[in-house]
Amino acid sequence: MTKTVTVIPGDGIGPEVTDATLSVLRASGADLEYDMQVAGMEALERVNTPLPDATLDSIRRNGLSLKGPLTTPMGSGFRSINVALRKEFDLYANVRPVRTIVPGGRYEDIDLVLIRENTEGLYVGVEHYIGLEGDPRAAAESVMIVTRFGAERIVRYAFEYARANGRKKVTLAHKANILKYTQGLFLDVGREMAPEYPDIAWEDRIIDATAMALVLEPRQFDVLVMENMFGDILSDLMAGLVGGLGFAPAGNIGEDTAVFEAVHGSAPDIAEQGIANPTGLLLSACLLLEHVGQPDVGARIRAALDHVVRAGEVRTRDMGGQASTVEFSDALVRALG
Ligand code: NAD
Fold it and tell me: What is the mean pLDDT of residues 309-315?
């Protein structure tokens, strides 16, 4: 059945990488229809709000979105439009796969998936200053919230993801040695759930040791699951293992809605120059295809990407080449044909 996707081109390089991604999707035979919507600066200029109701309605209707990077306008009443979207649709699982695409980097054959809890932890926004002796900002306090409900659904997501994707191991990274209550609860949930998945190897590791082990020997890992802030930090570290943010896709998954996006931002320094690398958004589209039961199409696009990048003749500047965004996506379209 044809799926309709809410497409939000976004700001900065967003429209360029979205055009490139859609041209590859159209050539790939993906059974998708595209409902174009606006958000971010473009929406602010056109309809006076960075997150229009029409865009939210479209995502709600389709349950599926592919979005470019969004700049949160100053004074718009939003801390972050991306966070507002996550909250609106309760997108609790942030799925960030990293895979070697450009050969000859620091590591070869990296293929890891980080699953980050997207709604709790230190990022719930419960924070305040404490005034003391005339200084209104003598101290500050941020509260980390971990619920059994939140921990259970993200750890279960990680195990189910591992099983559905033929993965062998889940590593739960935590700091339960120091944060005995919040991180302790997260770890306990993992320990209790692991026996339900005898087909998946399971381990827990302290977060700082995990960071070092990822740099020393990343291939010992497979699927990693952790709370919000640890996941935020380590997912960027993992993107660095495969050459940076330009190659990093992400899925934000909820019970009935999923939003896929590149990890990078709107890159204002190179916007409208036609030189952005569309790989992050294209790989996000591959995750979307897997999510809607079209993994074969996703695999074809990945194969075309591997082929073009490995051949080395058509690469964008961040990959050491000279190709424009359009030349790169044209090469991908040819490789698909
Ligand atoms: P950025 O990711 O936009 O850029 C960092 C560097 O990476 C820049 O030098 C940029 O040129 C380069 N880069 C990023 N994507 C690239 C690509 N596809 N091809 C080639 N080079 C690329 O990060 P930033 O500069 O910190 O943020 C810029 C804006 O993006 C900010 O307004 C920020 O809030 C927003 N942002 C949005 C999202 C999102 O919507 N998910 C994520 C991060 C940042």
Answer: 92
Whether ligand 1 lies within 6 angstroms of the CB of 319 is answered as no
In 3-state terms the chain splits into helix, strand, coil percentages (rounded to 5) of 45, 20, 35
Which tens digit of pLDDT belongs to each residue from 96-114?
999 998 887 889 889 999 9
Residue 232 a catalytic site member: yes
Please tell me if the CB atom of residue 276 comes closer than 6 angstroms to any atom of ligand 1.
yes
Measured CA to CA, the distance from residue 331 to residue 337 in angstroms comes to: 10
C-alpha span between 69 and 265 (Å, rounded): 5
Structure tokens at 117: 């809890």
278 CA → ligand 1 middle, Å: 12
CA atoms within a 13 Å half-sphere pointing along the CA-CB vector of 221: 30
Nearest atom (ligand 1) to Cα of 262: 41
Number of H helices, E strands in the chain: 11, 12
To the nearest 10 degrees (0 to 180), the angle between helices 207-216 and 228-241 is: 10
pLDDT attached to residue 246 = 79
Distance CA 244, CA 237 (A): 9
Residue of 78, 266, 329 with the most ligand 1 atoms within 8 Å of its CB, for mutation? 266
- Measured in degrees and rounded to the nearest 5, phi and psi for residue 137 equal -125, 45
Helix (H, G, I), strand (E, B) or coil at 98: strand
Is the separation of the CB atoms in 252 and 259 below 8 Å? Answer: yes
CA-proximal residue: ligand 1, atom 12 (nearest): 267
Do 237 and 245 meet the contact criterion of CB atoms below 8 Å apart?
A: no
What's the CA dihedral at 299, 301, 304, 309 to 10 degrees?
Answer: -100
Catalytic residue among 11, 232, 318, 330: 232
pLDDT digits (tens, 9 = 90+) for 72-95: 777 767 778 888 899 999 999 999
CB 111 within 8 A of CB 221: no
